[in-house]
Amino acid sequence: MRALVSKAVGGPETLEMVALPDLAAGPGQVVVAVKACAINFPDVLIIEDKYQFKPQRPFAPGGEIAGTIASIGEGVTGWEIGDRVIAMLGHGGLCEQVIADPAKLYRLPEGRSFAEGASLILTYGTTIHALLDRGHIKAGQTLLVLGAAGGVGLAAIELGKAFGAKVVAAVSSEEKAAAAKSAGADETLIYARAPFDKDQSKGLAEQFKAAVGRDGAHVIYDPVGGDYAEPALRSIAWEGKYLVVGFPAGIPKLPLNLTLLKSCDVCGVFWGAFAARDPKANQAHIETLFDLWEQGKIAPRVTEVFTFEDGGKAIAKMAARGAIGKLVVEVS
């Protein structure tokens, strides 16, 4: 089998296509023939050794895949060779075959593509945990989404609307604003590119306040960080929830006096740890996502598909923060 692997710390240009032995399913395992692998920002970080987990090299990036079961190990029940599945791996997805825990597989519904299946669990799983468990979002509240045209941003728009919120989407271009609108955002605003000086930061705060309205944003979903965080926090409602999701623009330093003045909460969102610590609650969320998908209330937006050989280009585009929706590598 082929695999696109990281042998040394660096950017996507350091990835190498290599030949590896085919895999065999051991007891309690299945081998999945990977058809599609979605690319997410953690794939940028993990090959640079900047992610929470640092796998031993060589390893393949790629945390979420869809494919078909190729072989089944002893003791595995409930699955058959050829079943279409979705799997969360953490890393390793940019391989033609992966070993998976059958207890952590999800069936890919008929009529859904492998690219769609590979694009569901991480972004929507992160977001449903963020909005329900950390943000305690309620119908009628205002949700401000930063980076709203990315994979998690579009998921936040759709889930916010599904839960009855008014959604304000903040993006960096007209093209991204159109994508946010098509996902259901009630309002959009376009912000400038950071870094910001003091006056620009104040101006962005006023822009956020005008967009969310006099009462402020009850929940702020921030997968961006950097210089955007403090201006967004200044637009929060009394006793609002600020959800810390990611930092592609850098790790911000927030003035804590703002949390006192608004009596608000700054809440970390670490979906992977949540899923490991409370698998039953996570499973309930995933079942809700499949129900919403079937109802047409959410739908992964795959905007670009790359060949396996161009998998590094997909990661490079994610690193440049140029992605709208989901980027997917077609593995086989």
Describe the overall structure.
- With 332 residues, the chain is an alpha/beta fold.
- Helices cover 32% and strands 25% of the residues.
- It is built from eleven helices and 15 strands.
- The strands form three sheets. Strands 3, 4, 5, 6, 7, 14 and 15 form a seven-stranded mixed β-sheet that branches. Strands 10-9-8-11-12-13 form a six-stranded parallel β-sheet, sandwiched between helices.
- Helix 8 links the parallel strand 12 (236-244) and strand 13.
- Helix 3 (121-134) crosses helix 4 (151-162), helix 3 crosses helix 10 and helix 9 (271-277) crosses helix 10.
- The protein is globular, with a radius of gyration of 20 Å.
- The model has no long low-confidence stretch (mean pLDDT 96).
Which percent band covers the strand fraction? 25-35%
Mean pLDDT: 96
Give the overall shape, derived from the CA principal axes. globular
Distance between the termini: 10 Å
Number of helices in the DSSP assignment: 11
Fold blueprint:
Elements (H helix, E strand, L loop, with lengths): L1 E4 L10 E4 L10 E10 L1 H7 L16 E9 L11 E5 L8 E4 L4 E3 L6 H5 L2 H14 L7 E4 L5 H12 L3 E6 L2 H9 L4 E4 L7 H15 L4 E6 L6 H5 L2 E9 L12 H6 L2 E4 L2 H7 L1 H17 L6 E6 L3 H9 L6 E5 L2
Parallel strand pairs: 8-9, 8-11, 9-10, 11-12, 12-13, 14-15
Antiparallel strand pairs: 1-2, 3-4, 3-6, 3-15, 4-5, 5-7
Helix pairs in contact: 3-4, 3-10, 9-10
